[in-house]
Specification:
The complex is a heterodimer of chains A (110) and B (113). Helix content of chain A is 0%, strand content 54%. By secondary structure, chain A is an all-beta fold. Chain B has 113 residues and is an all-beta fold. The chains are: A mainly beta (110), B mainly beta (113). At the A-B interface, β5, β6, β10 and β11 of A face β5, β9 and β10 of B.
Chain lengths: 110, 113
């Protein structure tokens, strides 16, 4: 079946630190991969996506590369800001099957 | 504004009552999905509709039901409410294309007292 595993949070960083949130997946075939972000009190917003192996998704300074050989889609940002504090969800879509990871809470301190 | 509209934003009701949550999908999207988000269980998929027909069911209780109307808006009905039903309920929509993500509404926060 399809599944997504994320590193457990919470993750607490100082402003301007480097961020990595690990995500690995299990799927048959060739899923599309996504990162969603949920700011406090809001719904989920699509942050970035990649639809095939070696694709790199990027947005707002965040990046993730679709690694089929390691079945991973780790989220990275070179310098986090306080405004990046949120919950981050890794997800995959395989046909009509959409699976979310459990979410990783990020807190960035000034 | 994501283009997915959910109403109401907040709802407070008593145990045993029945409520209806409404969702209007993004223009052109035929698929609608309902999710429940509670503090201790993350995002739980409830049900999916495509162009008026039920397509997939997740962890949806028998006390809950949903439908999608000809104009593509959807309603989630929650009955015989219990304290444990307190949660955020999200609607999402998507085109029927496999490499597209979902677009989420801002959610309805349900509090059962």
């Amino acid at each position: 079946g399809n599944s997504v595993t994320q590193m457990e949070g919470p993750v607490t960083l100082s402003e301007e630190a480097f961020l990595t949130i690990n995500c690995t997946y299990t799927a048959t075939g060739y899923p599309s991969l996504f990162w969603y972000v949920q700011y406090p009190g809001e719904g989920l917003q699509l942050l970035l996506k990649a639809t095939k192996a070696d694709d790199k998704g990027s947005n707002k300074g965040f990046e993730a590369t679709y690694r089929k050989e390691t079945t991973s889609f780790h989220l990275e940002k070179g310098s986090v800001q306080v405004s990046d504090s949120a919950v981050y969800f890794c997800a995959l879509r395989n046909g009509q099957n959409f699976v979310f990871g459990p979410g990783t809470r990020l807190s960035v301190l000034p | 504004d994501s283009g997915v509209t959910q109403t109401p934003k907040h709802l407070i009701t008593a145990t045993g009552q029945r409520v209806t949550l409404r969702c209007s999908p993004r223009s052109g999207d035929l698929s609608v999905y309902w999710y429940q988000q509670s503090l201790d269980q993350g995002l739980q998929f409830l049900i999916q509709y495509y162009n008026g027909e039920e397509r997939a069911k997740g962890n949806i209780l028998e006390r809950f039901s949903a439908q999608q109307f000809p104009d593509l808006h959807s309603e989630l009905n929650l009955s015989s409410l219990e304290l444990g039903d307190s949660a955020l309920y999200f609607c999402a929509s998507s085109p029927f294309i496999s490499n597209y993500g979902y677009t989420f509404g801002s959610g309805t926060r349900l509090t059962v007292v």
